[in-house]
Please model this.
Amino acid sequence: MVSSGARRARKRGGPQAALRLAVVLAALAPVSPGRAAPAPAGPPLTIQYLERRVERPVPLNNEDPIPADEGAKGAELGLKDSNATGRFLGLSFGLDAKVVEPGDDIRQAFRDLADRRFVVLNAPAADVLALADLPEAKGSVLLNIGAPDTRLRDADCRRNLLHVLPSRAMLADALVQFLAFKRWSRILLVTGPAPGDALYAEALRRSARKFGARIVAESRYDPQGGDVRDTALREFALPTRGPEHDVVAVADEAGAFGASLNYNTASPRPLVGTQGLAPAAWGRPVEAWAAVQLQGRFRKLAGRAMRPVDWAGWMAVHAVGEAAVKARSADPATVRAALTAPGFEIGGFKGRPLSFRAWDGQLRQPVFLLWPGAVTATAPIEGFLHHRTELDTLGLDEPESACRAFSGTPG
Amino acid sequence: MSRPAALALLLCLAGPARAEEIFVSNERDNTVSVIDGDSLEVLRTFPVGRRPRGLTFSQDGRALYVCASDSDAVQVIDPDTGEVRHNLPSGEDPEQFALAPDGRTLFIANEENATTTVVDAQSRKVLAQIDVGIEPEGVAVSPDGRTAVTTSETTNMVHWIDTKSLAAVDATPVGQRPRFAAFTADGARLWASSEIGGTVSVIDVATRQVMRTIEFAVKGIAADRIQPVGIQLSKDGRHAFVALGPSDRVAVVDTATYAVESYILVGRRVWQLALNAAGTRLFATNGVSGDVTVIDAATFKPIKTVKVGRFPWGAAARPMTPAQAPDGRAAGAVP
Model:
């Protein structure tokens, strides 16, 4: 099961891989003493960054807008870090970035890529699936950094698709673990109108069942037709009125009203979810486990704080770079085998070794519970145990996932 | 002045024999706590620069060097009074360092700008800045003074520096996030801890190849909470003590068989280790619980927990008998 990645890589590598053997062997030779920076052992390993630009609403409360280079800057830093490491082994890496405008054909953009072997994808789930199913993507490793959709780690998983960004299931599990720890287990859920909001709410319901919390009431809220900045004081009393509850959870991924819901609930209850106390892969207050180093490097490069998709972009390129270092090779087939090999672990400034789950290609990782002022807690929360690693208490565990693409004999 | 006369003067200046003292840097409090080696009480606490981490002594025990990371300086401090004598140029964000056997050449890891800075503590001059991997951290100098190493936490390598030419000459990949390195007394082996990899690599210094990777397992503790950081080799060289971070344990490794003999329960998130001069007591800094666990180095039993400041990071025993430093600087000198 775990080794299917390695087997798959060998099989798909085929005769081409054999032809590259000479190059690989040269790269595998140990660094000889007396050389600080060995000459590059082969051509640079090129990683692609492919993004579908998404139109976003204007922020309501003068928040910083989601930056146009979110994700791309993270990947750029990942490239810098990988090259800083690679130079000691004679390895070098390149990054080609391409952004597809809304409405344009992302499949054609993918086909047009000069090198499709490692592609960091920052695009919605529908695009991710469309690309993963292209015949041209059969031998690719696609690294998803933009789509949190749980279904991509479930029935809609794909063999050539790894997920660096946590799924909505992982985010919701992190939050509900925290609520269970605090015994704040009665949740009143307010869901926004967007399709992603419904998926976020569904993830919360699922997590509540998993960890023994209860959704005591649900309401839907659509900010269309009014200006919540003017009406929040009175308007939010209705959707947040309900039976006795400990927290109000909000599912508003686009930030259309959630920030104004804080302190405007009918009862004095904390707000959690997409706003308030929010689970996230990364955020500005994260500083432990030397994260402050990564935050500093990113700010120097991008001139702004690192966001979750930036972290995922950095992590995706860093993972490919580390796999190359581990294999001492820039040969794509060799790197791919190293990346998906059982036992491949990488650091990600989250205090634990990270690795890809063998059953669905998801990067297992801690999830932070953040409000803008601090890291309130880091999940997995103490007391949530798992026989493999506590990290597997977050998101779809092996028996829960309907993903079968990674199991059985390689196709 | 003749050599014997100088020595006599030195002994005279040393005054009455002092009790042993262990110095601990408190990263969050910007202070250093001084623990009495006999009574195991905190004798005094004095303020230092911002975010003190690595600390070490001059060979005669008269100068304490402290990496004040956020002050971008290595401070030279009077260990008796806590008074800062002067700052050494250190490069940006110094985290750990090591003093060469010549007693004056400091190799300093600059965590933020991927360099190792070499400073002459006497002339207070920067001799070189050497490019290494990302987030250099652990530093060690071989007992013969010919080789210095820096570990880089994100590049995951041990970088070998020739101390004569002050150039990085080689790199050995090790496990994820190497944090600390220590040479054996004979200089034949280098021990390097990998925090995220959860391992300790034992490297053959002659070939610069990893000859052994030591793994750890503690019953009831998830493998990813076992995060090796500080390493201290016992005085007789038979054991290596390894601080295992958030598993709250110090491992005792047999250096002949590489088998883990014991796991000693200490405070929360144990960082660094220091032995007293006699090698009988081991001091372990516990970052999260804000204390130091004192361990009997022969029986591997904890003796006492000493409360210090917030986030105790490094520890160093002050040399008891003033030794005279050899003449001249051995590193950075082209023969």
Observations:
- Chain B has a mean pLDDT of 92.
- Chain B touches chain A through 34 residues (CB under 8 Å).
- The first helix of chain B runs from residue 3 to 14.
- The radius of gyration of chain B is 19 Å.
